[in-house]
Design goal:
- This is ABC transporter substrate-binding protein.
- Keywords: Signal.
- Residues 1-18 form the signal peptide.
- It is a single chain.
- Helices cover 35% and strands 18% of the residues.
- The protein has helices at residues 3-16, 58-66, 88-91, 104-109, 131-136, 158-173, 176-195, 225-232, 251-257, 277-286, 294-297, 315-328; strands at 24-27, 33-39, 42-46, 53-55, 73-77, 96-98, 114-117, 141-143, 205-213, 216-219, 236-237, 261-266, 301-305.
- The chain folds into two domains: 18-186, Rossmann fold (3-Layer(aba) Sandwich), CATH 3.40.50; 205-328, Rossmann fold (3-Layer(aba) Sandwich), CATH 3.40.50.
- It is of the alpha/beta class.
- Helix 1 packs antiparallel against helix 12 and helix 6 (158-173) runs antiparallel to helix 7.
- The protein is globular, with a radius of gyration of 20 Å.
Length: 333
């Protein structure tokens, strides 16, 4: 079965049926179970499951929807692409707090009891407020484990950290069985990709381009999920020497690394120039140096939903697209 089919089927099966370390459970003075966890250096404690959650990005939104938690959500925000078809009915039940990253005022107006975002840079004074400020208001906030590699002392992979998010949410919301099933199904996709690495004569190199801002591309660095996806299927991320998730690069640096193929993230809903895959492809074809790369001239370019290159419940789908795309490009014997 092609990987894109396998990943898609597993996502549908999950719907039909979690930097945080593993959550811990103790008892509150009232005798009710208290769930405690560390999220990117901040200690969180829940005496009861949150009932008014606001998510700061689409990735966090879809993880909660995959866990069947739409009735616990007071708001969503920051849509980057179309909601996956299997989540659209549930998504329609959730109020939209803001089309982009919400302001502090928009967040507070939703009266949340928990805030979840994939990245630490959402929590700034000019966005929703710092995590310390929110904590002073009695509002706990969560950051994906994938964005806190400095807290990872155990050598966990980015997929392990993503699955830790699911497990943390399962404990916090009391849906451990749903979270365990989601982890099991998605780990099966990851393990199958790893077990059936494409057999290539030479390890192909790949550049992943997430977005283009002020004319400069942002590429996958060593700590990103795409770098791990590359490793899993026997390719090499061309910017693995940069210890960041999505560092800013230059078109000349991409040309110097001369990748065998290129992956473009498609973020059409964000609306800025350079967000859509079509914009990126046009920029590459117009660039005097990049346009001469064999990957561009020979159209060895894959396009994937940008949302799936972030820590997302949909990331395993793009892992499948990567394997199938490499097969189509001839990197599998």
């Amino acid at each position: 079965m092609p990987y894109r089919t396998l990943a898609g089927a597993l996502m549908l099966a999950v719907l039909a049926s979690a930097c945080g370390g593993p959550a811990e459970t103790s008892s509150s003075p009232s005798g009710a179970p208290t769930v405690q966890l560390d999220s990117c250096g901040q200690q969180l404690s829940f005496e009861q499951p949150p009932e008014r959650v606001v998510t700061l990005d689409q990735s966090s939104t879809e993880i909660l929807l995959a866990l069947g938690l739409q009735d616990r959500m007071a708001g969503t925000s920051n849509l980057k692409t179309e909601i996956a078809p299997e989540y659209q009915a549930a998504y329609a039940k959730v109020p939209v707090v803001a089309p982009k990253i919400p302001t502090a005022e928009q967040l507070r107006a939703a009266t949340p009891d928990f805030v979840i975002g994939s990245f630490t840079d959402y929590y700034t004074k000019d966005r929703v407020g710092t995590r310390a400020e929110l904590s002073e208001l009695g509002l706990p906030s969560y950051v994906s484990a994938v964005d806190c590699p400095q807290d990872n002392k155990t050598g966990m992979t980015p997929f392990d950290l993503l699955f830790a998010d699911y497990e943390s949410f399962g404990r916090v919301f009391g849906v451990e069985d749903r979270a365990s099933k989601l982890v099991k199904d998605q780990r099966a996709v990851v393990e199958q990709a790893s077990a059936t690495k494409p057999k290539v004569t030479d390890t192909p190199t790949v550049v992943w381009i997430y977005s283009v801002f002020n004319g400069l591309p942002y590429v996958a660095g060593a700590t990103s999920l795409p770098a791990e996806m590359s490793r899993l299927v026997g390719a090499k991320n061309a910017f693995d020497d940069i210890d960041e998730d999505w560092p800013e690069a230059s078109w000349e640096q991409i040309a110097q690394r001369d990748p065998d193929f290129i992956v473009l993230g498609d973020l059409p809903k964000r609306g800025a120039k350079g967000d859509s895959a079509a914009d990126k492809l046009q920029l590459m074809k117009e660039h005097p140096t990049v346009s001469q790369l064999s990957a561009v001239r020979e159209n060895k370019v894959l396009q994937m939903p940008g949302i799936e290159l972030d820590p997302s419940v949909r990331t395993v789908h793009s892992l499948g697209l990567l394997v199938d795309g490499m097969r189509d490009l001839g990197y599998v014997r």
